Amino acid sequence: MIGLLLLLSLHSTIAQGQKRELTGTITSSDDGTTLPGVNIIIEGTGQGTVTDIDGNYKIMVPNKETTLVFSSIGYLTQKVVVTDETKMDLVMDINIESLEEVVVIGYGTQKKKEVTGAVGNVDGETLTRSATADLGTALQGQVAGVNVTASSGEPGSSSNIVIRGLSSVTGNSAPLYVVDGIPYNGDPKLSMNEIESIDILKDAASAAIYGTRGAGGVILITTKQGKAGVMKVGLDSYYGVQKITSDVPLMNFDQYMYSEFLSKYNQNGTNYGNSWTPLENNLYSFTNDTDWAGIIQNDNATIQNHSLNISGGKEGLNYNITGTYFNQEGVIINSGFDRFNIRANTGYTKGKWVINTGLGIRLEEQEYAPWNFLLDAYKQKPYQQEIDPSASTISDASGSTNDALNLSYMAARMKQTDVRSGDHFNGFFQARYNLSKSFNIMSRMGGSITNNTRVRVNPLFKVYNELGELLPTTVRSGIYNFSDRSKSFTSETTLNYHKKFGEHSLKVLGLFSMERYEYTSFFAEKFDLISNDVLVLNGATLDPNVGSGSGYGQDRVNSLIGFLGRAQYDYKGKYLLSVSARRDGSSRFSKDYRWGVFPSVSAGWNVSDEDFWNSLAPVANSFKIRGSFGTTGNQNFLDYSNAATISLAKDYVFGPEGSDHLVLGAIQTAFANENVKWETTEQANLGFDLAFFENKFTFSADFYNTNKKDMLFPLLLPPTTGAGSNATVILNVGNMNNRGMEFTANYRHKGKFSWSAGLTFGKNNNKITKMSGANKIAYLSGSTVTSGLPNEDLVTVLKEGYEAGAFFVLKTDGLITSQEELQEYREIMPTAKMGDLKYVDALTVDTDGDGVPDAGDGLINNDDRVYAGSGMPEFEMGLNLNADYKGFDLSMQWYGAFGGEIINGSKAYAYKQGTHLDILYQWSPQNTTSTIPAYRGRDHENYRGYTDYWIEDGTFIRLRNVALGYTIPSGITNKVGVRNFRVYIAAQNPLTITSYDGFDPEVGNDGLNTRGIDKGNYPISAQYRAGIQFDF
């Protein structure tokens, strides 16, 4: 054994003697700066190293003539032969062609100089800096013309992304997502650490290659791929806390008691009444001062993200594996989100074959806060006994439970659990065979499977009075089960031809694609649990006489077939032309309207390549003019909308008199319309791209005009059709126009102190240009200001001549502050009192017969509604700032939305419940200058959610992200084998500048129906975190 060890030791010593250490520094020929991340490989082996952040390298090489290969993105690959050197520095030359930015355009790539459409780009580093699990949040303010609004601040929620205005009023206006060439149904919910880059096709000419699915624009996502070289391992990890930075001001105990006094006076005049306070029967409540909104908030909720990336490869083979764990506690109790992503990509090249594969897995668990939880808190009174969310019983300070009955609803909501568990699998296989240098054929197949299970439990909750008697609660216990499964499959075959003929270049693409999507779901709900220990459907009542529950299931299938042809031509790189046509067939239409053709054409002129531009080149080194026109379609509405639907469980009486009985029946709820055809979108775009001072300053401008034709809309049918009160029929009922402008400006300065600034500006004007129907107006469903209350109504409409989702509300004219005003207003509102709101009787009557209304009708009703703006901002801006100096880096991302309106439904609800702080300053005989109407109870006319009294300016400017980091010198980190080590602190949403009085001016944008309506949505939080990034 000792001899064997000596032999191994001797062999090791000899082996070491056959190698030597080679060191050096790599610099750029452009400005002499050192180059980090340069790959250095011993030719013919997989052995090598990478330069550190200061451009230094260290490698063991054989003691013989050896060839080293030096490669780096943007630089020419160099091979250097070494013999007995121990130190060798190298200057690398810039690869001019590779420095031209490459843009993904769908079914291919182009140099940015060759692009003739409107395409935006965001790199992966910008996305990871945002430190969010939501792609939309990371994109906000990064690309002009891309509107991103948060539907909710709830963990796991997704933002709404709209490109160049609404693309549909009934279907989904969201863009199409394409990941590594595979289309997705909705947000693919990737980890930001998986993404290499994002390219956004904004104009119709660029998106037309996706035909029926490109009406809302296209987001092309390229995930990280491996590169030949030594294996690289990187870790990105952060941990932080979250806080709610604003609130809806509510009254404390003392303020509430005073306002209660005023309210009783306002309701009873000079007679204050014998029972002006609910505390009369419970004096112990004087000891309470409960902040209900604060009770359901989770202060210092944590957020964390940990991502590990491994990549590498050798000649002909590469790999990239990324795994990410994200966890976010909710700032509202009973909410949170966990997600684990892993993605593995490989690439293989052998001879004429190029094969790529990708596999992604996502596991997630989302806990939902009870619906309208904040509104539930607003209605509770500060004198009520505080509830401990973890307690199992309720009692007030006296030991009785009289107040507990009133609080049982809130208590049950605080104990509700609502959890969704999901898994998602996606993958693709792509093979390309190069038939020649100019011609190749490629086949790509991919698909995804998603499974979700959601279980909501309202636990059994019992309330007893002080005598031990069981009291009825306001919330029934029960269990809700929902599960769904979706599958998608895509198959594409493309033929590509690329040939240069002297100064002419031609690219031709032919494509055939097939897509199939399947969806199935099941829902069941039962009430009255037997025990909180048996939380399954069978653990609830089976008694049909008490409405034990309900259930349903559905199965949907749709498919799409497409043919695409595209030709791209340029002459001398100056004159550019692209034409394409796609023909799609969708199963969602009847056979006579199944197929649609979507052509496009675009052209560009690189003016700066002309000889007459030479005198301007030292200042303006690049100038391009672009123009395009394209057509896209939309078939993104419910499956089987061209068929009639039948609903069961419509009982009717059958049989002779005396022996009649109920029989199960059915009723038609939707009529078939086999003439439904495609929504089509036509868009023209004119753009300019300029670069100054050797590309240090760049500027782009785009102007577009979009016409949407044959919009699909479900029109309500009159009851005389016999189809019920909510029966609809899908019709092509209207047209819509979007027109706007976009500007992007960037400046970069490189040196010891490097900095950059980027500015985006986008403005879109939307208008309904045609609307069928007698009144040319349709109120949108789901757009009430608050939920489940009297005096509520719909407020967002589709009306010819106005933007989609415009607010139509009653107009107010201040308060009644004099007897003269009171006497005049009682002509139309006999019950009016001093301090009440005055509603304007709009001009609806034509008294002189000229066809123009010139008088009111003496009534306040829906005919008096007038236009009051919308939740759509007039324009948006983004500002991105970055700076680096001696290892320190600072970045900031600002975003602003200007001119939109918000209906403050949270404020309206709290006013209605008598808890809003404004009520303390209401009109009274002692406060006659107040602009706040006298509070006369929740059902008084002073509370109407559909009036302009609750509308506020929704303009805001937000510091979306700010980060300060420091990279430790490589001389220190190299000693422990770490190539790069960065520490940083960062904040998200730490500052919002706005005059809006609610929780957040961005919340309340969960679609066209409720855009701009704050309904007590889950608030957006500020996040403060610290993190590390290192690789070796």
Automatic annotation (TrEMBL):
Gene3D superfamilies: Carboxypeptidase-like, regulatory domain, TonB-dependent receptor, beta-barrel domain, TonB-dependent receptor, plug domain
SUPFAM superfamilies in the cross-refs: Carboxypeptidase regulatory domain-like (SSF49464), Porins (SSF56935)
Domain TonB-dependent receptor plug span(s) in chain numbering: 111-218
PROSITE patterns: TONB_DEPENDENT_REC_3
Membrane topology listed for this record: Multi-pass membrane protein
Keywords: Cell outer membrane, Membrane, Receptor, Transmembrane, Transmembrane beta strand, Transport
GO cellular component, one term: cell outer membrane
Localization: Cell outer membrane
Homology family: Belongs to the TonB-dependent receptor family.
Entry protein name: TonB-dependent receptor
Source species of the chain: Echinicola strongylocentroti
